[in-house]
Records
---
Amino acid sequence: MTECHIHPTDIVRAGGAIVWRGDSRDPEVAVVHRPKYDDWSFPKGKLKPGEHVIAGALREVAEETGLSVVLGRHLPPVHYMKGGRLKRVDYWVARAIEEVAQEPSDEVDALVWLPVEEARARLTYEWDAGLLRAFGAAPLETTPFVVARHGYAGTRQDWSGDDDLRPLDEAGEAQATTIADLLYGYRPTSLVSSPSRRCVQTLLPYAAREVLKIRTERLLTETEYDTSLSLSLVLSILDEGRPTALCGHGKVLPELITGICEHRFDGHAEDTHLRKGAIAVLHHTGGRIVAVERYLT
């Protein structure tokens, strides 16, 4: 399982994407020219203070290319020294879904769409050619199944009412806002949750932004979870083939993720534990999972 989170401040963080369009079997990819460096590269840029790497990658791609994208697999990060500091750039496969005309700027003065081999020849840096190899190593067109653990919601000991009614606290509400920003990168159209208030609230900012309903399932609660029935439910949701986000509980989700991977993933998800407010992204195609990633908020 790939894991990404905010790294120590001595590392300069950046995010970007290999954006593709057309036939996934023979795609064109977006390559940009930066006049300051006179180089050709994939769109990327430095994160703002406190910005999540996924949100930063989406913002930088939009600013440099005018493209709206849907994220796919996370690619191997690139590390290099710049100005005496280590820089890490996280990249994703990203499918272009909308293009806004972009005027040339001091940062990017040209964007070209090229077949993969032509892009490889145009790119200035060897690490970008390495990214292209990873880009083509697995399916490009995948469907995301995002699993979220609810955000912070105080403690059971401090809540005297029905535990299903325990709400997110202030930190949890902030996590829910961040989760909405991350989900926007994957554009789920189906939202499923435990009916527990804190789980529904975790998906609510994204649901409100995209005007989506949240479907609740008792088999995702801690009290009614059943190893076999709950897994069957989640596999049936995955098999619907829609981009989906599901929110549940820390006591339930690790076993569910492990079960999904045992049935549908040829690789191995080493650690399926999710911290509060964290998400796992399972990318699948043709009924098989091709990548599993985990992100903190």
Note: Helices lie at 53-65, 116-122, 126-135, 170-186, 197-210, 227-239, 253-264.
---
Amino acid sequence: MLKPEILDPQGQAVQRALPRLGFQGISDVRQGKRFELEVDGPVDDAALARIHEMAETFLANTVIEDFVVKVEAAEGSAGAQK
């Protein structure tokens, strides 16, 4: 996601369009991007550290974006929720 201090014209355009489309009660919209990675093998501390490094050095533009790395169960795996 863009850092809070970075202007988000796309998010502002979406926010202005929502009431015209019948969607009320939204006070702010921020546009962002999402990467979904499928990891080979276990997601242990070493894998998470490597993924965090990948996000920080390659996937995110850390000058203007914040990022979060989180683990979710893959669909169809034990414990996965829909």
Note: The helical segments are 9-20, 45-59.
---
Amino acid sequence: DPDLCARIQQVVVFGHPTLSRPVSRLLARDDLVTYAVSGPSGWADPGHHVHVVADRVELEGVSPGWFATEQPGGAPPGPNPWLDEWLSRDREVGKRLDDLLAARGTLTPQQVAGAVSAALPPGGLLFVGASNPVRDLDLMVAPYEVGGRRKVVGNRGLAGIDGSVSTAVGAALGRPHSTRAIALLGDVTFLHDANGLVLGPDEERPDLTLVVVNDDGGSIFSSLEQGAPQHADAYDKLFGTPHGVDVAALCAATRTPHWKVDSLAELRHALASPAGGIEVVEVAVRRDDRRELDAEIRALVRAGAQD
């Protein structure tokens, strides 16, 4: 909603901003006061708009989720009509989005991201692959409670899909106290580091569920200029890059447990029943309707913002 966004006055940034375009646009605004909270690796200012850098944010006399305001005596903030309206719009658009996706009749990548997000318990670890998974998660992430201590990580950089399986395994090993470790990967990202499943017999193996969204190729370009109808004849060869890999056979070669699901109910069941160790849940989705679906989602969000 342009009006709701225009009323934002301050932004507090923890860690490195995501690839989310709405977040990037927000941080690029000149009319906001932006605070960056420095962490172990310093602080980020990709838009060069940070006004204040601090090493911590203290909440005194307020409930979790609220930031103290500069009121006399440090009193907690009163009613917040802006926040109430923001949350109400979020719930309304979220419900419409769920209905839109359910009406398609086949499992969508966005529903996969939503199911993975919902399956992550407090104290859990989620590794997110590059390309569409991180964008789908940005759209569908569950409204977590404050203080749940869920940790979400992912690789960044020009070669963001390289080494993702190994990174997910390493992250799970490096955070052994996690209540659950899940990785959400596209099929091309998974295949680029499938040898990350090859661990020596004496190597430690974490409990890690790799959810592979398999649309037999790359769909990230389908919603960009390359995916326009006039380029359909050359799209698959240059950008879609179908691979036809039998993921079950690949997992069998490394003795990695594998399940293939093609419905939301099956996916939820698989996520609720981890077998222990490293396992792969392959989710079959369509690729040929990604551009159309993205357009429908954008139209739905715009309509919801104008209601």
Note: The CA atoms of residues 93 and 304 lie 6 Å apart.
---
Amino acid sequence: MEPFLEFLIDKQGPVLRGPDASPAKIEAWRGKMPELILTWWQEVGFAGFAEGLIWLTDPDEWTDIAADFIPICQVLSPALEPVAHNGPYYPWLRTAFGEMFCWSPVHGAAIRIDPITRLISGRDYARDVADGQPDNGLDAIIVSDRSRFDTIDEHEKPLFRRLLKRLGPVASDTMYALTPAAAGGPVIESNFSIEPAEAQLAVLASL
């Protein structure tokens, strides 16, 4: 097994099964996704980890969702501004709250899109790409502590454990969603439910 993936499983617990990644899909994304991510697809498909807190994503299903959010989000880093709004950006990982981690083979930039706060963070890795470092810290993202992927409530307390206990885990196509959908409003535990991810994010992007 790929070493970073093995470390993730050892650290975060068993893999949650998701859709398989076919050989044809892996080949279709070769050259657009870092080889490390394609290796993970080959080994576990679009699986979940950390009790469903994070999921590897099929960019064929998530790229349009990310594209809807990028124009309406604020970019936190001025250095990232020139490339953040000029895609394409391909989601390769998402959280149980719909945050998307995306990669751009054009710019060598990795961004994180938060659909609740409408913020984009990340880093431009163009120089690293030029220096022949194709994976650019993506392995470090996936083995991060859980706190990196959690969402906090209006009192700055992490939500995932409480929602997992109350609602159960999300699946590869669902997420913990504020209902009714809200962007920029108060994030209160009691307002979350499990909803279809694609439909919920489409509503958030339209607000």
Note: Residues 34 and 135 are 6 Å apart (CA to CA).
